[in-house]
Amino acid sequence: MIALGIIFVLGLGLSSYLLLMRWQYVSVTRSQAWNAALSMAEAGAEEALAQLNPSALLFSTNINSGANGWSLLSDGMYHAPRGTLTDGYYDVAITADTLPTIYSTGYVTIPSLSATLYRTLKVGTGFGSLFRGPMAARVNVDLKGNKITTDSFDSLDPAHSTNGLYDPAKRKAGGDVATTLGVINVQNANIMGTLYTAPGGSFTIGPQGSVGDVAWVSGGQSGVEAGHYKNDFNMDFPDVLPPYQTGLPPVDGTVGGTNYTWVLGNGNYMYTQGNGANFNSDDTILVQGSARVYVTGNFVMHDGASIIIAPGASLELYVGGANTSISTVYNAGNCATFNYFGLPGNTSIGLTGNASFLGTIYAPNANLTLSGGGNNTLDYQGAVSVNTISMNGHFNFHFDENLKRSGPMRGYQITSWGEN
What we know:
Layout lengths: L1 H51 L18 E2 L4 E3 L3 E2 L4 E7 L5 E10 L4 E15 L5 E3 L3 E3 L2 E8 L23 E3 L3 E5 L2 E3 L2 E2 L5 E4 L4 E3 L1 H5 L4 E2 L4 E2 L22 E3 L2 E3 L1 E3 L2 E5 L4 E4 L4 E4 L2 E6 L2 E4 L4 E4 L4 E6 L3 E4 L1 E4 L6 E5 L5 E4 L4 E16 L5 E16 L1 E7 L2 H4 L2 E11 L1
Parallel strand pairs: 7-10, 7-33, 8-11, 8-33, 9-12, 9-34, 10-13, 11-14, 12-15, 13-17, 15-16, 20-23, 21-24, 22-25, 23-26, 24-27, 25-28, 26-29, 27-30, 28-31, 30-32, 31-32, 32-33, 33-34
Antiparallel strand pairs: 1-2, 2-4, 3-4, 4-5, 5-6, 6-35, 18-19
């Protein structure tokens, strides 16, 4: 009886130990599968984002959600073919809304337990702004002009603009300058904002240079105010693809008794002649509607040539040639009504001649030169993202913070994330 009792106790202990080990194995296996199922769901969300962002840059919501084998089903959502990976599979769908919601479910089967675990993601999307700040370069920024000043305003906020335009009495310290690879040469500029470089980047500043908030710079302080230099900047510069393959040729015309070199209304225009478009000193482009112009070659405006954008009109200008020179732009709207896009072959942009320029420039491979002679101060209201920036003259650069909300977009980005 004593021996049987001892054997029973030992057997009970061994059984309890084996049962504990079994539950530990099940717990670990389920935990691993649970995490793997989330990875499957994330893979589905990545595929959905790729479906929503099919090109280098996206400037409209006209997305073919049914491309790449996706199908519109009875639930009103577009579904992708089931994605199968080594450890499991996922099902993903996107809603047909202007701002789609992504639903992705990842599945992982545990053969030893004859069980399948799943995790579900609900991902909200929104438009990503093309411009994160006023002045961004892939390589170097050189502010070698005289009395260069940067700051910001908000054309949508009456407290920080007047009739949607820059008002120095309402300015903000959002005149940031950023680079991802090179050096920011502040020299003697007044930067009402923050300097951003990538890790390992640097900046130089002259004896009269000032970087900080409005009070710091306006108060005559020199140097960089504490907290106004950061070396963690990261930004990609996706290429601009040709916006379309065919368009109407721009033509001349007479409006109100005045002759114009080009008269642009609503629609897509395309200029493919010779080396590009060349405008003499007395040439004028009149924009009367929402116009998009794609110039496959160079776009050169000699001094005295001008672009007139009528009230309520807008112009998107795409240039594929190497060289661009922009003289005078008369813009009756706000910064969002003139947008310039340089394709990968666009490597040089010169901006001269404007007492005030309202618009944006995005050309990731172009070296932008802003030059002005004499004692005239040139005002730039808008934003630029280019390869390098060089200023030589008297410039005031004002970033319109409303461009983050209503300016050109760069595609869809994640705005919310929920897991089940």
